[in-house]
Design goal:
The protein contains 10 helices and 6 strands; from the N terminus they run E-H-E-H-E-E-H-H-E-E-H-H-H-H-H-H. By secondary structure, it is of the alpha/beta class. Helix 7 packs across helix 10. The chain is globular and about 55 Å long. It comes from Lutibacter holmesii. This is Phosphoadenosine phosphosulphate reductase domain-containing protein.
Length: 292
């Protein structure tokens, strides 16, 4: 819920059509507010997404702040943030690997990546600018995405401007139809480039179409999938039981996904939604990381 009697808004943008639309409309809907726009780069964003966000920043005059996580390897010392520019964004998995060194391979029971690479550094940056509990956080969920809204949002400082204004997919598409900037990327490829929360069908499709992107993920498994972590008993017991931890559900490896992708299958598309199919089970982050 937007804080009453408060003119500070922290707008988190995720390089998607909905979140950028929200950012543009915030100026119109809240003209007398102090709005800061920010995006967290995980170092595994699609280059198309980064380019799109940079073009939107310039075209719509958002004056966006690029944030990157600073993973502290010391125990009991949390993640911090760095302010960077589009030109010097880390693009080769460096930040993600720093996180893996400390928190292990992210997987269905070890979901640290969204928290440490996005949520924590973004919030610390906002606190450093506004002060704690003195701002509202705008998140770009639409009116047709009620199922993704946190049930606790009315009790904290998170609000959903698009939802509150009744903006749905059709409204969003109508807006972008008339804009000169386009995100040249199918939705199923968006977000983190080979996110373990994507459905197996999406991963197979990406492995088939963008083979160069999956090399890094295989390297991470080779380097860290058998490395135990101090104080993480569940994680370590899993390694003891299965001799490794892999990113994907059912402990599938990157190689497993590559092999599956060589066999005949129905590729993922943005137009067709599969149901009742194990290939299409997907976690929260698969469709877009939940920030705040």
């Amino acid at each position: 819920m937007k804080l009453k009697d408060n003119n500070n808004i922290f707008c988190t943008i995720s390089a998607g059509y909905s979140s950028v639309l929200m950012g543009v409309k915030l100026k119109e809907w809240f003209p007398n507010h102090n709005i800061i726009y920010a995006m967290a780069n995980t170092s595994k964003e699609r280059e198309e997404s980064l380019h799109f966000m940079n073009e939107c920043d310039k075209y719509f005059g958002l004056n966006m702040v690029w944030i990157e996580a600073k993973i502290n390897q010391e125990k009991r010392k949390g993640t911090d943030f760095n302010i960077v520019t589009y030109e010097n964004l880390k693009r080769n998995g460096e930040l993600f690997e720093d996180g893996i060194k400390k928190y292990g391979i992210p997987c269905k029971f070890n979901k640290w990546c969204n928290r440490e690479l996005k949520l924590v550094p973004l919030k610390k940056y906002a606190d450093s600018v506004f002060g704690k509990n003195t701002y509202s956080i705008a998140v770009g969920l639409r009116a047709d995405e009620m199922d993704r809204v946190l049930l606790s949002y009315k009790d904290n400082n998170v609000f959903y401007p698009l939802l509150d204004k009744g903006v749905n997919t059709r409204d969003r598409n109508k807006f972008w139809k008339h804009q000169p900037i386009k995100l040249n990327l199918p939705a199923y490829k968006g977000n983190c480039d080979f996110c373990f929360e994507k459905s197996i069908r999406k991963l197979m499709t990406i492995a088939n179409e963008d083979k160069h992107l999956i090399k890094w993920w295989g390297e991470m498994e080779c380097k860290y999938s058998t490395t135990s972590l101090d104080g993480k008993d569940t994680y370590n017991k899993y390694i003891d039981k299965f001799n490794r931890i892999s990113f994907f559900r059912d402990n599938r490896t990157v190689k497993d996904i590559e092999v599956l992708a060589t066999k005949p299958f129905s590729k993922a598309t943005d137009e067709y939604i599969y149901e009742n199919d194990l290939f299409d089970l997907e976690g929260d982050c698969g469709a877009g990381c939940k920030v705040f």
